[in-house]
Amino acid sequence: MATRSPAGTRGSNSRFAQFKLVLLGESAVGKSSLVLRFVKDQFDDYRESTIGAAFLTQTISLDDATTVKFEIWDTAGQERYKSLAPMYYRNANCAVVVYDITQSSSLDKAKQWVKELQRQANENIIIALAGNKLDLVTDQPDKRAITTADAEAYANEANLLFFETSAKTSENVRELFTAIAKKLPLDQAGPRNPRAAGRGGVTLQPETPGTQKGGICTC
């Protein structure tokens, strides 16, 4: 349920709502880079692969009276962590499924995630499909493996929001999350997660003992 801010902090008609958002997709498609760009407006060419999931938060002001806070779960893309995903997308209000426009197999994986969300997640979940690494094909179009038209046709068929993004240049990153915020019902905000409330985020480790971090990911 959307929560109204205390008197004096915003206008009397202002609304403040928070929603749980999960990112899914194959390893190395740039999920963590998208989140880093959105939350901190930063980009790192070399990022270690996410283990388990990372938690961050960010707010968007849709207008003078409406603010949306995203509680973001950035999940690991490695196959060995796939079984952990349901604990992160369970009760999620929205999801971003990411693929790499230079890797054709990553869209196939993205489609699998979409099917899983549509089958097992909240029936009202808002799903966005994000084709990342747009910067790689700007000057070298031959690197593109997935056409915009094909991905957009699939997104329309599956009733998904669709954006091509670049975490490196920030192209369409803000627009992606803003479009999601505009689709969310402000009277159905999810509860705050009591275990991870900080803006900077906390990385959760999987319960499997002895697991090591993955290799460097140029996302």
TrEMBL record:
Membrane topology: Lipid-anchor
Tree of life domain: Eukaryota
Gene3D superfamilies per record: P-loop containing nucleotide triphosphate hydrolases
Keywords: Cell membrane, GTP-binding, Lipoprotein, Membrane, Nucleotide-binding, Prenylation, Protein transport, Transport
GO cellular component term, pick one: plasma membrane
Location within or outside the cell: Cell membrane
Pfam entry (one): Ras
Swiss-Prot/TrEMBL GO biological process terms: protein transport; vesicle organization; vesicle-mediated transport
GO MF annotations in UniProt: GTP binding; GTPase activity
Region ranges (Disordered): 188-219
InterPro entries: P-loop_NTPase (IPR027417), Small_GTP-bd (IPR005225), Small_GTPase (IPR001806)
Family: Belongs to the small GTPase superfamily. Rab family.
Name of protein: GTP-binding protein ypt5
